[in-house]
Amino acid sequence: MEHPIAILDSGVGGLTVAKEVMRQLPLERIIYFGDTLRAPYGPRPSEEVRLFTKQIVSYLLQYDPKMIVIACNTATAAALDEIKAMTDVPVVGVIQPGVRAAIKRSMKGAIGVIGTEGTIKSRSYEQALKRIAPHLQVYSKACPEFVTLVEQGLYRSSKCKPVVERALHEFKQLDIDTLILGCTHYPFLADAISAFLGPEVELISSAEETAREVSTLLYHRGQLASTLEMPVHQFFCSGDPVLFQKIAREWLGDEIQVNPVVWQIPRFA
Amino acid sequence: MEHPIAILDSGVGGLTVAKEVMRQLPLERIIYFGDTLRAPYGPRPSEEVRLFTKQIVSYLLQYDPKMIVIACNTATAAALDEIKAMTDVPVVGVIQPGVRAAIKRSMKGAIGVIGTEGTIKSRSYEQALKRIAPHLQVYSKACPEFVTLVEQGLYRSSKCKPVVERALHEFKQLDIDTLILGCTHYPFLADAISAFLGPEVELISSAEETAREVSTLLYHRGQLASTLEMPVHQFFCSGDPVLFQKIAREWLGDEIQVNPVVWQIPRFA
Questions:
Q1: In this structure, what DSSP letter does residue A49 have?
Q2: A110 - beta bridge partners?
Q3: Which end of chain A is more exposed for a tag (fewer CB within 10 A), N or C?
Q4: pLDDT band for position A75 (cuts 50, 70, 90)
Q5: Is residue B96 within 8 angstroms of chain A, CB to CB?
Protein backbone atom coordinates (compact mmCIF):
# COMPACT_ATOMS: atom_id res chain seq x y z
CA MET A 1 0.00 0.00 0.00
CA GLU A 2 1.16 3.54 -0.74
CA HIS A 3 2.59 5.52 2.14
CA PRO A 4 0.09 8.21 3.03
CA ILE A 5 0.40 11.97 3.26
CA ALA A 6 -0.27 12.99 6.86
CA ILE A 7 -2.21 16.23 7.29
CA LEU A 8 -2.84 17.85 10.65
CA ASP A 9 -4.71 20.87 11.88
CA SER A 10 -6.20 22.35 15.04
CA GLY A 11 -9.61 21.30 13.72
CA VAL A 12 -11.48 21.40 10.41
CA GLY A 13 -9.37 24.11 8.72
CA GLY A 14 -6.92 21.59 7.32
CA LEU A 15 -9.79 19.98 5.41
CA THR A 16 -9.31 22.80 2.90
CA VAL A 17 -5.79 21.46 2.35
CA ALA A 18 -7.01 17.85 2.28
CA LYS A 19 -9.61 18.74 -0.34
CA GLU A 20 -6.98 20.34 -2.57
CA VAL A 21 -4.59 17.41 -2.14
CA MET A 22 -7.44 15.08 -3.18
CA ARG A 23 -8.17 17.24 -6.22
CA GLN A 24 -4.60 17.93 -7.33
CA LEU A 25 -3.19 14.50 -6.37
CA PRO A 26 -6.16 12.13 -6.73
CA LEU A 27 -3.99 9.01 -6.39
CA GLU A 28 -2.48 9.96 -3.03
CA ARG A 29 -3.75 8.54 0.25
CA ILE A 30 -4.37 10.90 3.18
CA ILE A 31 -4.31 10.44 6.96
CA TYR A 32 -5.92 13.47 8.55
CA PHE A 33 -5.93 14.58 12.16
CA GLY A 34 -8.03 17.50 13.43
CA ASP A 35 -7.44 18.50 17.05
CA THR A 36 -11.03 19.68 17.48
CA LEU A 37 -10.94 19.11 21.24
CA ARG A 38 -8.28 21.77 21.70
CA ALA A 39 -9.16 24.15 18.83
CA PRO A 40 -8.70 27.01 18.28
CA TYR A 41 -4.91 27.21 18.46
CA GLY A 42 -4.76 30.91 17.47
CA PRO A 43 -5.10 32.43 20.97
CA ARG A 44 -2.83 29.85 22.69
CA PRO A 45 0.78 30.57 23.73
CA SER A 46 3.21 29.33 21.08
CA GLU A 47 4.83 26.99 23.62
CA GLU A 48 1.54 25.14 23.99
CA VAL A 49 0.91 25.04 20.23
CA ARG A 50 4.36 23.51 19.77
CA LEU A 51 3.59 20.80 22.34
CA PHE A 52 0.22 19.92 20.79
CA THR A 53 1.71 19.80 17.29
CA LYS A 54 4.48 17.45 18.43
CA GLN A 55 1.93 15.17 20.08
CA ILE A 56 -0.10 14.93 16.89
CA VAL A 57 2.94 14.35 14.69
CA SER A 58 4.07 11.53 17.04
CA TYR A 59 0.63 9.99 16.67
CA LEU A 60 0.64 10.29 12.86
CA LEU A 61 4.17 8.91 12.43
CA GLN A 62 2.88 5.43 13.32
CA TYR A 63 1.14 5.44 9.91
CA ASP A 64 4.54 5.73 8.22
CA PRO A 65 3.70 8.78 6.10
CA LYS A 66 5.89 9.90 3.19
CA MET A 67 5.18 13.54 3.96
CA ILE A 68 3.75 15.56 6.85
CA VAL A 69 1.69 18.64 6.13
CA ILE A 70 1.16 21.05 9.02
CA ALA A 71 -2.10 22.38 7.61
CA CYS A 72 -2.45 25.06 10.27
CA ASN A 73 -0.78 28.43 10.01
CA THR A 74 -0.59 28.91 13.78
CA ALA A 75 1.16 25.55 14.20
CA THR A 76 3.42 26.23 11.23
CA ALA A 77 4.49 29.57 12.69
CA ALA A 78 5.09 28.04 16.14
CA ALA A 79 6.43 24.57 15.42
CA LEU A 80 7.66 23.99 11.85
CA ASP A 81 11.36 24.01 12.68
CA GLU A 82 10.95 21.72 15.70
CA ILE A 83 8.83 19.25 13.76
CA LYS A 84 11.44 19.19 10.98
CA ALA A 85 14.09 18.38 13.57
CA MET A 86 11.91 15.58 14.99
CA THR A 87 11.77 13.33 11.91
CA ASP A 88 13.40 12.48 8.59
CA VAL A 89 10.03 12.57 6.86
CA PRO A 90 9.76 15.81 4.84
CA VAL A 91 7.55 18.38 6.55
CA VAL A 92 5.61 21.05 4.69
CA GLY A 93 4.01 24.03 6.39
CA VAL A 94 1.33 26.29 4.97
CA ILE A 95 3.11 29.64 5.25
CA GLN A 96 5.82 29.35 2.58
CA PRO A 97 3.50 28.15 -0.23
CA GLY A 98 1.19 31.14 0.31
CA VAL A 99 4.19 33.45 0.38
CA ARG A 100 5.50 32.21 -2.96
CA ALA A 101 2.08 32.31 -4.58
CA ALA A 102 1.49 35.88 -3.36
CA ILE A 103 4.85 37.00 -4.75
CA LYS A 104 4.01 35.37 -8.07
CA ARG A 105 0.61 37.05 -8.31
CA SER A 106 1.11 40.51 -6.85
CA MET A 107 2.05 42.94 -9.58
CA LYS A 108 1.81 46.00 -7.30
CA GLY A 109 3.98 44.44 -4.59
CA ALA A 110 1.40 45.39 -1.94
CA ILE A 111 0.13 42.35 -0.10
CA GLY A 112 -2.37 41.88 2.74
CA VAL A 113 -2.18 39.01 5.22
CA ILE A 114 -4.92 37.83 7.57
CA GLY A 115 -4.51 35.07 10.14
CA THR A 116 -5.00 34.14 13.79
CA GLU A 117 -3.50 36.19 16.61
CA GLY A 118 -0.71 33.63 16.96
CA THR A 119 0.21 33.75 13.27
CA ILE A 120 0.07 37.53 12.94
CA LYS A 121 1.95 38.11 16.20
CA SER A 122 4.73 35.78 15.02
CA ARG A 123 5.24 38.04 11.96
CA SER A 124 6.06 34.85 10.03
CA TYR A 125 4.39 35.97 6.80
CA GLU A 126 5.98 39.39 6.80
CA GLN A 127 9.43 37.95 7.44
CA ALA A 128 9.04 35.19 4.84
CA LEU A 129 7.78 37.63 2.19
CA LYS A 130 10.59 40.13 2.80
CA ARG A 131 13.19 37.39 3.01
CA ILE A 132 12.52 36.70 -0.67
CA ALA A 133 11.51 40.16 -1.88
CA PRO A 134 12.56 42.95 0.50
CA HIS A 135 10.76 45.69 -1.45
CA LEU A 136 7.27 44.33 -0.71
CA GLN A 137 4.71 46.25 1.33
CA VAL A 138 2.90 43.96 3.73
CA TYR A 139 -0.24 44.76 5.76
CA SER A 140 -1.26 42.21 8.41
CA LYS A 141 -4.33 41.77 10.58
CA ALA A 142 -5.54 39.08 12.96
CA CYS A 143 -9.10 37.85 12.34
CA PRO A 144 -9.66 35.25 15.10
CA GLU A 145 -13.45 35.46 14.81
CA PHE A 146 -13.33 33.73 11.40
CA VAL A 147 -12.06 30.48 12.94
CA THR A 148 -14.94 30.33 15.40
CA LEU A 149 -17.49 30.73 12.60
CA VAL A 150 -15.94 27.84 10.69
CA GLU A 151 -15.42 25.46 13.62
CA GLN A 152 -19.09 25.96 14.54
CA GLY A 153 -20.11 25.05 10.98
CA LEU A 154 -21.59 28.53 10.39
CA TYR A 155 -19.49 29.40 7.30
CA ARG A 156 -22.51 29.36 4.99
CA SER A 157 -24.81 31.26 7.35
CA SER A 158 -25.88 34.89 7.15
CA LYS A 159 -23.66 35.59 10.17
CA CYS A 160 -20.56 35.66 7.98
CA LYS A 161 -21.15 38.85 6.02
CA PRO A 162 -21.15 41.36 8.93
CA VAL A 163 -18.21 39.59 10.61
CA VAL A 164 -16.15 39.69 7.43
CA GLU A 165 -16.97 43.31 6.71
CA ARG A 166 -16.13 44.45 10.22
CA ALA A 167 -12.82 42.59 10.19
CA LEU A 168 -11.64 43.64 6.74
CA HIS A 169 -12.86 47.21 6.32
CA GLU A 170 -9.31 48.62 6.71
CA PHE A 171 -8.15 46.66 3.68
CA LYS A 172 -10.65 48.56 1.51
CA GLN A 173 -8.54 51.69 2.12
CA LEU A 174 -5.24 50.01 1.19
CA ASP A 175 -4.00 49.63 -2.35
CA ILE A 176 -3.34 45.88 -2.15
CA ASP A 177 -3.90 43.53 -5.10
CA THR A 178 -3.34 40.28 -3.18
CA LEU A 179 -4.64 39.01 0.16
CA ILE A 180 -3.14 35.91 1.76
CA LEU A 181 -5.71 33.82 3.64
CA GLY A 182 -3.11 32.98 6.27
CA CYS A 183 -5.28 30.45 8.10
CA THR A 184 -6.54 27.21 6.63
CA HIS A 185 -10.00 27.91 8.02
CA TYR A 186 -10.42 31.01 5.87
CA PRO A 187 -11.06 29.38 2.47
CA PHE A 188 -14.42 28.35 3.96
CA LEU A 189 -15.20 32.09 3.93
CA ALA A 190 -13.55 32.89 0.59
CA ASP A 191 -16.81 33.82 -1.15
CA ALA A 192 -17.79 36.29 1.56
CA ILE A 193 -14.28 37.81 1.66
CA SER A 194 -14.10 38.13 -2.10
CA ALA A 195 -17.60 39.65 -2.32
CA PHE A 196 -16.50 42.35 0.13
CA LEU A 197 -13.03 43.17 -1.25
CA GLY A 198 -14.01 42.93 -4.92
CA PRO A 199 -12.40 41.27 -7.93
CA GLU A 200 -9.30 43.48 -7.97
CA VAL A 201 -7.97 41.76 -4.83
CA GLU A 202 -6.87 38.20 -5.53
CA LEU A 203 -7.16 35.80 -2.61
CA ILE A 204 -4.31 33.37 -2.03
CA SER A 205 -5.47 30.17 -0.40
CA SER A 206 -2.84 28.43 1.71
CA ALA A 207 -4.76 25.27 0.93
CA GLU A 208 -4.46 25.30 -2.87
CA GLU A 209 -0.87 26.46 -2.78
CA THR A 210 0.24 23.94 -0.20
CA ALA A 211 -1.26 21.08 -2.21
CA ARG A 212 0.61 22.36 -5.25
CA GLU A 213 3.88 22.34 -3.30
CA VAL A 214 3.23 18.88 -1.91
CA SER A 215 2.87 17.79 -5.54
CA THR A 216 6.12 19.54 -6.48
CA LEU A 217 8.10 17.98 -3.65
CA LEU A 218 6.72 14.46 -4.15
CA TYR A 219 7.67 14.69 -7.82
CA HIS A 220 11.19 15.93 -7.18
CA ARG A 221 11.69 13.29 -4.50
CA GLY A 222 10.39 10.55 -6.83
CA GLN A 223 7.59 9.76 -4.37
CA LEU A 224 4.36 10.23 -6.32
CA ALA A 225 1.87 7.38 -5.82
CA SER A 226 2.75 4.56 -8.17
CA THR A 227 -0.58 2.75 -8.35
CA LEU A 228 -3.67 3.81 -10.27
CA GLU A 229 -6.06 2.63 -7.57
CA MET A 230 -8.25 5.19 -5.89
CA PRO A 231 -6.95 5.65 -2.35
CA VAL A 232 -8.92 5.19 0.86
CA HIS A 233 -8.40 8.13 3.18
CA GLN A 234 -8.63 8.13 6.98
CA PHE A 235 -9.82 10.95 9.21
CA PHE A 236 -9.30 11.34 12.93
CA CYS A 237 -10.32 14.02 15.39
CA SER A 238 -9.76 14.51 19.10
CA GLY A 239 -13.18 16.04 19.87
CA ASP A 240 -16.80 15.44 18.94
CA PRO A 241 -16.83 13.39 15.74
CA VAL A 242 -20.40 14.28 14.77
CA LEU A 243 -19.84 17.95 13.93
CA PHE A 244 -16.45 17.13 12.38
CA GLN A 245 -18.00 14.51 10.15
CA LYS A 246 -20.82 16.84 9.10
CA ILE A 247 -18.35 19.58 8.08
CA ALA A 248 -15.96 17.11 6.43
CA ARG A 249 -18.73 15.66 4.25
CA GLU A 250 -20.16 19.06 3.41
CA TRP A 251 -16.75 20.38 2.41
CA LEU A 252 -15.21 17.37 0.72
CA GLY A 253 -18.40 16.51 -1.16
CA ASP A 254 -19.78 13.25 -2.42
CA GLU A 255 -17.76 13.23 -5.63
CA ILE A 256 -14.65 12.34 -3.64
CA GLN A 257 -14.42 8.88 -2.08
CA VAL A 258 -13.63 9.24 1.61
CA ASN A 259 -15.17 5.92 2.72
CA PRO A 260 -14.72 4.08 4.92
CA VAL A 261 -14.10 6.95 7.27
CA VAL A 262 -12.53 5.67 10.45
CA TRP A 263 -13.14 7.85 13.48
CA GLN A 264 -10.98 7.44 16.50
CA ILE A 265 -10.09 9.67 19.39
CA PRO A 266 -6.50 9.28 20.56
CA ARG A 267 -6.11 9.42 24.29
CA PHE A 268 -3.81 12.33 24.82
CA ALA A 269 -5.25 15.77 25.68
CA MET B 1 29.31 35.83 -4.23
CA GLU B 2 26.05 33.89 -4.45
CA HIS B 3 26.00 30.87 -6.70
CA PRO B 4 23.87 31.72 -9.72
CA ILE B 5 20.81 30.05 -11.20
CA ALA B 6 21.71 28.86 -14.71
CA ILE B 7 18.94 29.23 -17.28
CA LEU B 8 19.20 27.89 -20.82
CA ASP B 9 17.02 27.95 -23.90
CA SER B 10 17.21 27.49 -27.66
CA GLY B 11 17.03 31.28 -27.95
CA VAL B 12 15.03 34.12 -26.41
CA GLY B 13 12.10 32.02 -25.11
CA GLY B 14 13.82 31.34 -21.81
CA LEU B 15 13.90 35.09 -21.17
CA THR B 16 10.26 34.68 -20.09
CA VAL B 17 11.54 32.37 -17.35
CA ALA B 18 14.45 34.69 -16.50
CA LYS B 19 12.03 37.61 -16.18
CA GLU B 20 9.84 35.67 -13.76
CA VAL B 21 12.83 34.50 -11.72
CA MET B 22 13.96 38.14 -11.46
CA ARG B 23 10.48 39.19 -10.35
CA GLN B 24 9.76 36.33 -7.95
CA LEU B 25 13.33 35.97 -6.63
CA PRO B 26 14.82 39.44 -6.93
CA LEU B 27 17.91 38.56 -4.88
CA GLU B 28 18.98 35.64 -7.05
CA ARG B 29 21.72 35.95 -9.67
CA ILE B 30 21.13 34.53 -13.16
CA ILE B 31 23.45 33.17 -15.84
CA TYR B 32 21.47 32.86 -19.07
CA PHE B 33 22.39 31.08 -22.28
CA GLY B 34 20.30 31.36 -25.47
CA ASP B 35 21.37 29.10 -28.33
CA THR B 36 20.16 31.58 -30.95
CA LEU B 37 22.57 30.26 -33.57
CA ARG B 38 20.86 26.88 -33.63
CA ALA B 39 17.26 27.92 -32.78
CA PRO B 40 14.58 26.74 -33.24
CA TYR B 41 14.94 23.36 -31.51
CA GLY B 42 11.31 22.33 -32.13
CA PRO B 43 11.78 20.73 -35.58
CA ARG B 44 15.12 19.03 -34.74
CA PRO B 45 15.45 15.29 -33.97
CA SER B 46 15.44 14.68 -30.23
CA GLU B 47 18.92 13.13 -30.43
CA GLU B 48 20.30 16.44 -31.65
CA VAL B 49 18.38 18.47 -29.06
CA ARG B 50 19.87 16.23 -26.37
CA LEU B 51 23.40 16.85 -27.65
CA PHE B 52 22.96 20.63 -27.84
CA THR B 53 21.45 20.74 -24.36
CA LYS B 54 24.35 18.77 -22.91
CA GLN B 55 26.85 21.10 -24.59
CA ILE B 56 25.19 24.16 -23.08
CA VAL B 57 24.92 22.62 -19.62
CA SER B 58 28.64 21.73 -19.74
CA TYR B 59 29.36 25.35 -20.61
CA LEU B 60 27.16 26.69 -17.81
CA LEU B 61 28.53 24.34 -15.14
CA GLN B 62 31.80 26.32 -15.12
CA TYR B 63 29.84 29.13 -13.40
CA ASP B 64 29.14 26.78 -10.48
CA PRO B 65 25.37 27.24 -10.47
CA LYS B 66 23.19 26.11 -7.55
CA MET B 67 20.39 25.16 -9.91
CA ILE B 68 19.98 24.55 -13.64
CA VAL B 69 16.73 25.51 -15.35
CA ILE B 70 16.09 24.00 -18.77
CA ALA B 71 13.86 26.86 -19.87
CA CYS B 72 12.90 25.18 -23.14
CA ASN B 73 10.07 22.69 -23.40
CA THR B 74 11.61 20.89 -26.38
CA ALA B 75 14.90 20.41 -24.52
CA THR B 76 13.07 19.41 -21.33
CA ALA B 77 11.10 16.75 -23.22
CA ALA B 78 14.23 15.44 -24.96
CA ALA B 79 16.98 15.78 -22.38
CA LEU B 80 15.78 16.33 -18.79
CA ASP B 81 16.62 12.83 -17.55
CA GLU B 82 20.06 12.82 -19.18
CA ILE B 83 20.93 16.24 -17.80
CA LYS B 84 19.86 15.12 -14.32
CA ALA B 85 22.21 12.13 -14.65
CA MET B 86 25.05 14.42 -15.75
CA THR B 87 25.38 16.53 -12.59
CA ASP B 88 24.62 16.71 -8.88
CA VAL B 89 23.26 20.22 -9.30
CA PRO B 90 19.44 20.11 -9.14
CA VAL B 91 17.86 20.43 -12.59
CA VAL B 92 14.41 21.88 -13.18
CA GLY B 93 12.54 21.54 -16.47
CA VAL B 94 9.58 23.59 -17.64
CA ILE B 95 7.07 20.80 -18.24
CA GLN B 96 6.28 19.62 -14.71
CA PRO B 97 5.59 23.10 -13.27
CA GLY B 98 3.05 23.82 -16.02
CA VAL B 99 1.46 20.42 -15.45
CA ARG B 100 0.99 21.03 -11.74
CA ALA B 101 -0.33 24.56 -12.27
CA ALA B 102 -2.82 23.34 -14.89
CA ILE B 103 -4.11 20.62 -12.55
CA LYS B 104 -4.48 23.20 -9.78
CA ARG B 105 -6.43 25.61 -11.97
CA SER B 106 -8.59 23.42 -14.20
CA MET B 107 -11.95 22.83 -12.57
CA LYS B 108 -13.43 21.09 -15.64
CA GLY B 109 -10.47 18.72 -16.00
CA ALA B 110 -10.23 19.57 -19.73
CA ILE B 111 -6.84 21.00 -20.59
CA GLY B 112 -5.30 22.19 -23.86
CA VAL B 113 -1.56 22.07 -24.55
CA ILE B 114 0.33 23.90 -27.28
CA GLY B 115 4.04 23.51 -27.98
CA THR B 116 6.63 22.84 -30.66
CA GLU B 117 6.49 19.72 -32.88
CA GLY B 118 9.17 18.10 -30.74
CA THR B 119 7.31 18.73 -27.49
CA ILE B 120 3.90 17.65 -28.77
CA LYS B 121 5.28 14.57 -30.53
CA SER B 122 6.99 13.47 -27.30
CA ARG B 123 3.55 13.45 -25.58
CA SER B 124 5.40 14.60 -22.44
CA TYR B 125 2.62 16.89 -21.25
CA GLU B 126 -0.13 14.36 -21.78
CA GLN B 127 1.82 11.67 -19.95
CA ALA B 128 2.80 13.96 -17.09
CA LEU B 129 -0.78 15.21 -16.63
CA LYS B 130 -2.26 11.71 -16.64
CA ARG B 131 0.48 10.36 -14.41
CA ILE B 132 -0.87 12.60 -11.67
CA ALA B 133 -4.57 12.73 -12.59
CA PRO B 134 -5.62 9.93 -14.97
CA HIS B 135 -9.17 11.29 -15.46
CA LEU B 136 -8.02 14.45 -17.27
CA GLN B 137 -8.93 15.18 -20.89
CA VAL B 138 -5.96 16.59 -22.76
CA TYR B 139 -5.96 18.21 -26.22
CA SER B 140 -2.56 18.92 -27.79
CA LYS B 141 -1.43 20.86 -30.83
CA ALA B 142 1.94 21.90 -32.25
CA CYS B 143 2.24 25.62 -33.09
CA PRO B 144 5.81 25.92 -34.48
CA GLU B 145 5.04 29.18 -36.28
CA PHE B 146 4.80 31.01 -32.93
CA VAL B 147 8.50 30.46 -32.19
CA THR B 148 9.55 32.02 -35.49
CA LEU B 149 7.48 35.15 -34.80
CA VAL B 150 9.16 35.57 -31.41
CA GLU B 151 12.74 34.81 -32.47
CA GLN B 152 12.36 37.41 -35.23
CA GLY B 153 11.20 39.98 -32.68
CA LEU B 154 7.75 40.26 -34.32
CA TYR B 155 5.71 39.38 -31.24
CA ARG B 156 4.20 42.86 -30.96
CA SER B 157 3.50 43.24 -34.69
CA SER B 158 0.16 42.95 -36.52
CA LYS B 159 1.38 39.64 -37.97
CA CYS B 160 0.56 37.83 -34.73
CA LYS B 161 -3.23 37.99 -34.77
CA PRO B 162 -3.88 35.98 -37.98
CA VAL B 163 -1.17 33.43 -37.10
CA VAL B 164 -2.63 32.89 -33.63
CA GLU B 165 -6.19 32.61 -34.92
CA ARG B 166 -5.27 30.12 -37.63
CA ALA B 167 -3.31 27.96 -35.19
CA LEU B 168 -5.82 27.94 -32.35
CA HIS B 169 -9.24 27.89 -34.05
CA GLU B 170 -9.82 24.22 -33.08
CA PHE B 171 -9.56 25.10 -29.39
CA LYS B 172 -12.57 27.40 -29.76
CA GLN B 173 -14.68 24.28 -30.36
CA LEU B 174 -13.35 22.41 -27.32
CA ASP B 175 -14.69 22.86 -23.81
CA ILE B 176 -11.31 23.53 -22.17
CA ASP B 177 -10.87 25.96 -19.28
CA THR B 178 -7.06 25.87 -19.19
CA LEU B 179 -4.41 26.13 -21.92
CA ILE B 180 -0.80 25.31 -21.17
CA LEU B 181 1.65 27.50 -23.10
CA GLY B 182 4.01 24.55 -23.50
CA CYS B 183 6.85 26.57 -25.02
CA THR B 184 8.72 29.34 -23.27
CA HIS B 185 8.42 31.51 -26.37
CA TYR B 186 4.64 31.63 -26.14
CA PRO B 187 4.22 34.06 -23.22
CA PHE B 188 5.48 36.72 -25.67
CA LEU B 189 2.17 36.07 -27.52
CA ALA B 190 -0.03 35.69 -24.43
CA ASP B 191 -2.08 38.82 -25.11
CA ALA B 192 -2.93 37.74 -28.66
CA ILE B 193 -3.75 34.19 -27.52
CA SER B 194 -5.92 35.40 -24.67
CA ALA B 195 -7.74 37.90 -26.87
CA PHE B 196 -8.66 35.10 -29.26
CA LEU B 197 -9.65 32.39 -26.73
CA GLY B 198 -11.46 34.72 -24.33
CA PRO B 199 -11.37 35.10 -20.55
CA GLU B 200 -12.93 31.71 -19.80
CA VAL B 201 -9.69 29.96 -20.86
CA GLU B 202 -6.89 30.52 -18.37
CA LEU B 203 -3.40 30.48 -19.83
CA ILE B 204 -0.69 28.66 -17.89
CA SER B 205 2.74 30.13 -18.47
CA SER B 206 5.61 27.67 -18.08
CA ALA B 207 7.69 30.71 -17.22
CA GLU B 208 5.75 31.91 -14.17
CA GLU B 209 5.22 28.42 -12.87
CA THR B 210 8.82 27.35 -13.30
CA ALA B 211 10.06 30.40 -11.41
CA ARG B 212 7.64 29.54 -8.61
CA GLU B 213 9.03 25.99 -8.45
CA VAL B 214 12.62 27.23 -8.50
CA SER B 215 11.66 29.32 -5.47
CA THR B 216 10.06 26.30 -3.77
CA LEU B 217 13.06 24.07 -4.32
CA LEU B 218 15.65 26.66 -3.28
CA TYR B 219 13.70 27.21 -0.06
CA HIS B 220 13.38 23.51 0.75
CA ARG B 221 17.07 22.97 -0.01
CA GLY B 222 18.04 25.93 2.17
CA GLN B 223 19.64 27.65 -0.83
CA LEU B 224 17.87 30.99 -1.15
CA ALA B 225 20.26 33.91 -1.70
CA SER B 226 21.56 35.05 1.64
CA THR B 227 22.64 38.60 0.80
CA LEU B 228 20.42 41.61 0.30
CA GLU B 229 22.55 43.00 -2.53
CA MET B 230 20.93 43.35 -5.95
CA PRO B 231 22.48 40.70 -8.18
CA VAL B 232 24.30 41.29 -11.47
CA HIS B 233 23.03 38.92 -14.14
CA GLN B 234 24.93 37.65 -17.16
CA PHE B 235 23.53 36.82 -20.58
CA PHE B 236 25.15 34.77 -23.33
CA CYS B 237 24.01 33.77 -26.78
CA SER B 238 25.55 31.68 -29.54
CA GLY B 239 24.23 33.75 -32.45
CA ASP B 240 23.84 37.43 -33.35
CA PRO B 241 23.96 39.42 -30.09
CA VAL B 242 22.28 42.52 -31.54
CA LEU B 243 18.80 41.08 -32.04
CA PHE B 244 19.10 39.07 -28.82
CA GLN B 245 20.03 42.17 -26.87
CA LYS B 246 17.17 44.15 -28.40
CA ILE B 247 14.61 41.51 -27.42
CA ALA B 248 16.17 40.97 -23.99
CA ARG B 249 15.97 44.67 -23.16
CA GLU B 250 12.46 45.04 -24.55
CA TRP B 251 11.24 42.06 -22.54
CA LEU B 252 13.14 42.47 -19.29
CA GLY B 253 12.56 46.21 -19.14
CA ASP B 254 14.52 49.00 -17.56
CA GLU B 255 13.08 48.55 -14.09
CA ILE B 256 15.22 45.44 -13.64
CA GLN B 257 18.98 45.88 -13.35
CA VAL B 258 20.66 43.62 -15.89
CA ASN B 259 23.83 45.68 -16.22
CA PRO B 260 26.58 45.10 -16.97
CA VAL B 261 25.43 42.65 -19.59
CA VAL B 262 28.35 40.56 -20.77
CA TRP B 263 27.98 39.15 -24.26
CA GLN B 264 30.12 36.27 -25.30
CA ILE B 265 29.80 33.61 -27.97
CA PRO B 266 31.13 30.22 -26.95
CA ARG B 267 32.94 28.43 -29.71
CA PHE B 268 31.00 25.24 -30.10
CA ALA B 269 28.27 24.90 -32.76
A1: H
A2: A137
A3: N
A4: very high
A5: yes
For the stretch A100-110, pLDDT in tens is: 999 999 999 99
CB pair distance less than 8 Å for B100 and A212 = yes
The answer to whether B219 contacts A133, with C-beta atoms less than 8 Å apart, is no
A27, A100, A208 ranked by CB distance to B212: nearest? A100
Shortest CA distance from A22: residue in chain B: B133
Taking the Cβ of residue B223 and every Cβ of chain A, the question of whether any pair is shorter than 8 Å is answered with no
Identical fold at A5-94+208-252 and A95-206? yes
Catalytic position from the list B143, B160, B183, B237:
B183
Say if the ipTM goes beyond 0.90: no
Surface-to-core class of residue A24, CB atoms within 10 Å of its CB (0-12 exposed, 13-18 middle, 19+ buried): buried
CATH fold group of domain A95-206: Rossmann fold (3.40.50)
Q: What is the pLDDT of residue A246?
A: 84
Q: In A, residues 104-143, which contact B (CB 8 Å cutoff)?
A: 104, 131-135
Q: How many angstroms separate the CA of residue B95 from the nearest CA in chain A?
A: 12
Those residues of chain B that have pLDDT short of 70 are 254-269
A157 membership: H or E segment, kind and range? none
Q: A55-82 burial by CB neighbour count: b if 16+ within 10 A, else e? A: bbbebbeeeebbbbbbbbbbbbbbbbee
Of A20, A134, A217, the CB nearest to B228: A134
C-alpha A13/C-alpha B140 separation (Å) is 38
CB-based contact B25:B84 (threshold 8 Å): no
Which of A26, A104, A135 has its CB closest to that of B208?
A104
User: Average model confidence (pLDDT) for chain A?
Assistant: 90
Contact B24 A228 (CB under 8 A): no
Per domain, the residue ranges of chain A are: 5-94+208-252, 95-206
CATH topology of domain A5-94+208-252: Rossmann fold (3.40.50)
If DSSP codes are grouped into helix, strand and coil, which group holds residue B123? Answer: coil
Nearest CA in chain A to B26: A133
Does B198 reach chain A within 8 Å, measured CB to CB?
no
Q: Which pLDDT score, from 0 to 100, does residue A254 have?
A: 58
Q: How far apart are CA B197 and CA A251, in angstroms?
A: 32
Q: Which of B73, B82, B88, B129 is nearest to B106 (CA)?
A: B129
pLDDT, greater one: B169 or A252: B169
A2-38 pLDDT tens trace: 899 999 999 999 999 999 999 999 999 999 999 988 9
Contact A208 B25 (CB under 8 A): no
A 228-247 residues with CB < 8 A to B: 228
SS3 annotation, B25-50? CCCCCEEEEECCCCCCCCCCCHHHHH
Per the CB < 8 A criterion, the answer to whether A158 and A167 are in contact is: no
